[in-house]
Amino acid sequence: MPQTRLVIADDESIIRMNLKETLVSLGYLVVGEAGDGVSVINLARELRPDLVLMDIKMPKLDGIQAARILTEEKIAPVLLLTAYSDRDLVERAKEAGVVNYIVKPFREAELLPAIEIAIARYQEFLEMDRQVADLKETLETRKLVERAKGILMDTQGLKEAEAFRKIQQLSMNTRKSMKEIAQAILLAHEI
């Protein structure tokens, strides 16, 4: 089983060193380290880790802003490790798409479940995102095929089932998707 790849970010190098040591002892692979929000984004874009662990208070760009970018770009889930737990920060972290939030000082025993659950939730999110994209694609195809069927029915005097079968047959014969065939019929009709 491949090791889980992590990127860590904290503006204090001693904290990064201790965190890396702890993560390695738990069996994780730390593939990158950063000291500010801009660097962690660039590092994550380049390395595509399984998870990014970072502090909130960092120079250039805080951890919550960095988390928002990483989440929007679907680069990696973010787990915040921070000494700050006020309600405003927690709310901002939720809005940014942070998958977990641990307040320092934390125990080593808290880290493993937090990491594993964060990664699992992120994978579920990605799967739902894929399903939504597939459903949108299916709906778009269905709409195009319905319009193309209507054109074939009007122009060629076909019944609905015959028009559908014609699109299906053209799809198989040309090795193109039904969506592509429907788009071609619509385009030809416009001309």
UniProtKB/TrEMBL annotation:
Q: Name one GO molecular function term.
A: RNA binding
Question: Which part of the chain is the Response regulatory domain?
Answer: 5-119
Stored InterPro entries: ANTAR, CheY-like_superfamily, Sig_transdc_resp-reg_antiterm, Sig_transdc_resp-reg_receiver, WH-like_DNA-bd_sf
Q: Where in the cell is it found?
A: Cytoplasm
Q: Which residues cross the membrane?
A: none
**Alphabetical GO biological process terms:** phosphorelay signal transduction system
Q: Which Pfam families match?
A: ANTAR, Response_reg
Among its keywords, does the record have Lipid biosynthesis? no
Q: Where is the ANTAR domain?
A: 125-186
Which SUPFAM superfamilies does this entry report, sorted A to Z?
A: CheY-like
Which positions carry 4-aspartylphosphate? 55
What does the UniProt keyword field contain? Cytoplasm, Phosphoprotein, Stress response, Transcription, Transcription regulation, Two-component regulatory system
Q: Which PROSITE patterns match?
A: ANTAR (PS50921), RESPONSE_REGULATORY (PS50110)
Q: Would you tell me the Gene Ontology cellular component terms?
A: cytoplasm
The task this protein performs is described as: In addition, the PdtaR/PdtaS two-component system controls copper and nitric oxide (NO) resistance downstream of the intramembrane protease Rip1. This coupled Rip1/PdtaS/PdtaR circuit controls NO resistance and acute lung infection in mice by relieving PdtaR/PdtaS-mediated repression of isonitrile chalkophore biosynthesis. Two signals are required to fully inactivate the PdtaR/PdtaS system and mediate NO resistance: a cytoplasmic inhibitory signal through the PdtaS kinase mediated by direct sensing of NO and the production of PPE1-5', an NO-induced small RNA, to sequester PdtaR. Member of the two-component regulatory system PdtaR/PdtaS. This two-component system plays an essential role in mycobacterial adaptation to poor nutrient conditions. PdtaR probably acts at the level of transcriptional antitermination rather than transcriptional initiation.
The protein depicted here goes by the name: Transcriptional regulatory protein PdtaR
Q: Which organism is it from?
A: Chloroflexus islandicus
